[in-house]
Specification:
The protein is mainly α. The protein has helices at residues 5-10, 14-35, 52-71, 87-106, 110-113, 126-150, and strands at 116-117, 124-125. The protein has a single domain (14-150), classed as Up-down Bundle (Four Helix Bundle (Hemerythrin (Met), subunit A)), CATH 1.20.120.450. Helix content is 60%, strand content 2%. A two-stranded antiparallel sheet has the order 1-2. Helix 2 (14-35) runs antiparallel to helix 4 (87-106). It is globular. Mean pLDDT is 90; it is low at 1-6.
C-alpha cells in the first residue's frame, strides 16, 4: 500500500484533520445556504422551530462563542445577533464565522488541545471542544437539509473529509 506524503500530512495531527474537515464543513453548509431560495430563508417547519435563516445565525453564534471562549484570549460577550435581511449577508456572516474559528484553532498548539478547560457540563479537553464545534454544525446542518427537502429544493451532494 502506498501512502502519499500529502495524505499522511493531512492525518498527521488531530488539529490538521479537524482543520481539513472544518473547511469542508464550511463549503457544505454554504452550499446548503446557497441552494435555498431567498424567499424561503424565513421558512420554519413548525412554530416552535427556528427559521432557515435563524438556524444559520444560530450556528454562527455557537462558532463565535466556542472559538472565542476556548481558543483565544478574547473576553466573549454573548450578544443577540442582528439577523441580516438578505441571503447574501447571512452567508457572508456565516463564512466569516467559519474563517474566524479556523484562525483561532490554527493558532492553538497540539499541546494546548490536550489542556482541560472548565465547561458548563464539566471539565473538557480543548480537543473535545473541537469536536463540539463540528458536531453542533452537523446537528443543525442536518435540520437544514430537511428544510430544503420540505421546500422541494435538492440538497447539494454531501461533502465529507
Amino acid at each position: 500500500m502506498i501512502i502519499s506524503a500529502t495524505s499522511f500530512a493531512q492525518q498527521s495531527s488531530a488539529k490538521e484533520a479537524w482543520l481539513e474537515k472544518w473547511e469542508n464543513s464550511k463549503d457544505y453548509l454554504v452550499a446548503i445556504a446557497e441552494v435555498m431560495p431567498e424567499e424561503h430563508f424565513g421558512f420554519k417547519p413548525t412554530e416552535r422551530q427556528m427559521s432557515f435563516k435563524e438556524q444559520l445565525i444560530h450556528i454562527k453564534g455557537n462558532m463565535d462563542w466556542l472559538s472565542s471562549s476556548y481558543f483565544s484570549e478574547e473576553d466573549f460577550k454573548r450578544e443577540k445577533t442582528v439577523i441580516p435581511e438578505t441571503k447574501a449577508a447571512v452567508i457572508a456572516l456565516l463564512s466569516e464565522a467559519f474563517d474566524a474559528a479556523k484562525a483561532k484553532v490554527e493558532s492553538a498548539s497540539e499541546e494546548d488541545l490536550k489542556r482541560t478547560i472548565d465547561f458548563f457540563d464539566g471539565p473538557k479537553s480543548k480537543l473535545q471542544m473541537l469536536n463540539l464545534l463540528q458536531d453542533h454544525v452537523s446537528h443543525h446542518r442536518g435540520q437544514l437539509i430537511v428544510y430544503l427537502n420540505l421546500n422541494s429544493v435538492e440538497p447539494p451532494k454531501y461533502v465529507g473529509w
